[in-house]
Design goal:
heterodimer; A: 418 residues; alpha+beta; elongated; B: three-stranded antiparallel β-sheet; 4 helices; binds zinc ion
Amino acid sequence: MKLLSLTLKSLRQRKAGVALTVFTVALSVFLLLGVERVRTDARQGFASTVSGTDLLVGARSGPVTLLLYSIFHVGEATNNITWKSYQAIRAMPEVAWTVPLSLGDSHRGFRVTGTTADFFTHYHYGRGNALAFTSGKPFADLYDAVIGAEVARQLHYKVGDRIVLSHGLGGPNLASHADKPFRISGVVAPTGTPVDATIAVSLEAIEAIHVDWRSGMRLPGLEASADEARRMDLTPKAITAALVGLHSRLSAFAVQGAINDYDEEPLLAVLPGVALGELWHLIGTAENALRVVSGMVLLVGMSGMLTALLGMLGERRREMAVLRALGASTRTVFSLLVMESTLLTIAGMLAGVILLDATTALAHDYLLAVAGLVIDETPAPGEGVLLLVVLALGSLAGCIPGWVAYRRSLADGLQVRL
Amino acid sequence: MKALPLVFPFLLAALPIAAHAEARQLGPHVHGQASVNIAVEASTMDVQVSLPGHDAVGFEHPPGTPAEQAAVDKATASLNAAAWLVPAPAADCTLALARVSPHGFGGATEAGGHADFDASYHFTCRRMDRLDQLDVRLASAFPSVAKVVVSLITAAGSSQQVLEGGVSHVGVPQ
Ligand SMILES: [Zn+2]
């Protein structure tokens, strides 16, 4: 205890240097834990891009290909599946609900998804979060569109605005569906999933805008106006993929097997979590890079503290000599410096954690809106271990100036005696 | 509208292995690799296993000698006992039903020339909330199994874990 109060008194003498050292440690702890939190949350968020959906069904390709195209809207387009097959899946007794997804058109770089209003009730993300509307409501009219938060933010759209969809993904020879403009009926709240960058319209709307199109071209002489299209048969012929929910999870493997074995059409049913895990595994090297960076950050922070402690040692030669003269053993001098670095590390850790918590609390909404990143305010599971590592490193770092001071006071002690 | 026939996974392996076998959730027939599907809901845990005949008994043809027949019987009994699967004891699970079906060991050789052991189990767990892990000891029960692909479906979603090199621990996301 005496050692502790001695350390505190000594630290009080060097306020500026001490504050700077604590700040260095705090910053490295902040970065270390921050990176860890972002890493776990990014993985968590990614793994639950689709939750509450038991199976994702599309044309036979690969699980990752299907997932990338139908959910993340990137990568190679998969084949379509026929409406008939979709109806057959829908009619299976184990199937509770299905949500069709039809891709192919875009609007100013954002993908358009044709679906049903069920999408807004059955598409869940994270720990079973349903989609919420910032304003407006799901599409009701044939020419209604619902936009994601990112679309609204980047294009400054609001409910009631009129937009025109483009055929395909855009590019210089953009074919537009200008004859059939859409009205924005709702804006979905930020989710941190690809929904944020999606424009959702009804399946019938996708049919309607292509009713007078064949093989990617508008047929001259066959034009159907927006109102004429309303009276036509708008039953889709094909969709890209479907989300499937089951009455019981217990039937998931059996239904998956039955769909994969459907002999009228080559279909693929994947378990979303398995496909997401596979995909994360592919991009997991980024995660390791983050880990390496946070390890480096910690090393830099610790060497910062070490430099400061060693630097202060020169001016403290007299302090040590006085301590020795008062009867302190060389071992006490060593312990004093280890105690000092430990205290500084603990103070830095506390400051770093407080800083991180304050930042995540403040930046939570901003990060979700701008980066689509959901940062959890609760600590990541690995944080306790990391803090212990920091503490151990901090104490260990104190051994170096401790050893120097120990050697010096031995020498100084000898000099006094001489 | 024609409804899909519900094909149980333990029948799938009996079907000819198509060019698109990789799409099948039981996976292609790979010697040394077993697949385990586990689905959990409420107090029920359903487990399905597919084990290549090569790894279960060392051959994939109708047993011709008494020794081969004994090997098939032994593997069947071993799978039937379900000792290779140990759910977390705290979950208090009891095996309610086990069904083992060897395919391709009968009179006519199956298309594709392979034979498998398929087994399905039905467990009832009193404390499913405590089922945080499972021990899948297929590799020690059948030493030529080098890799076990475990697919899991729980309330937390679906996931897959690959067991290799003596690992038998499967974490159950909650
Ligand atoms: Zn189009």
